[in-house]
Input
Amino acid sequence: MSESPLPIVRTVADLRARVAGWRAAGERVALVPTMGALHEGHLSLVRLAGRQADRTVASIFVNPTQFGPSEDFDAYPRGEARDAALLADAGCDLLFAPTVAEMYPAGFATKVSVTGVSEPLDGAARPGHFDGVATVVTKLLLQCAPDVAVFGEKDYQQLQVIRRLARDLDIPVEIVGGATARAEDGLALSSRNAYLSPEERVIAGRLNGVLRESVNRLKAGEAVAGVEADALAALAAAGFQTVDYVEVRDAEDLARLGPGPALGPARILAAARIGRTRLIDNMAV
Output
């Protein structure tokens, strides 16, 4: 254990021992997995977890297997002491902060791969990313064995991948999605927003507006293909250097929709780059 405003455990054995004690007392347990560098979006998930259970565990683990070779693993913001204080204030009961060696010991040779829902969008733009996500989340769910696990809707494709793996692997956990926390101009809160310069931050705030306008047009019955094309052009005009995708997909399995009107529950999802920052966002249609 470490001195902290919040109890911290670093091994699976210690995590399981603490959770076992709560279970023996008849308490319901929630898990909120994170990679740290916490902001209000994470804390809103912790508070949501607190309404779902008697005890809340948050994990902080910057998972190397979900970063590509040219991505920002080494530069990803870290600050455990600050994060622990924020978690304590948000009502968290325990922080699980394992090392890479604890999560992936010598000889580790297993990968969880979710086909279908993981393949388009970020799956195409970041090959191997969702295998890393699915593997580490499966491990966390089995290590903590929570009654409920809470994930943010900002990473909507990730949320659907996790729901699929929990169903397919019969992991007895309820997966709950928490609403995206946003800045005043609508920008989805993200740890990577810290990379933005003041000028880039202004441009980043336009992503939300483009998606909101697209949702309004889709709800009015406009064709998917035209809305997507106009959104792509609008993001380029707004100052984004590249747009990985802006697409309308089925809300559950992320199957392609269009080219006509979107029928049934749908989601518009986008990923765009400015400077060294890659932003993602999505909205329900």
Summary: The CA atoms of residues 137 and 162 lie 7 Å apart.
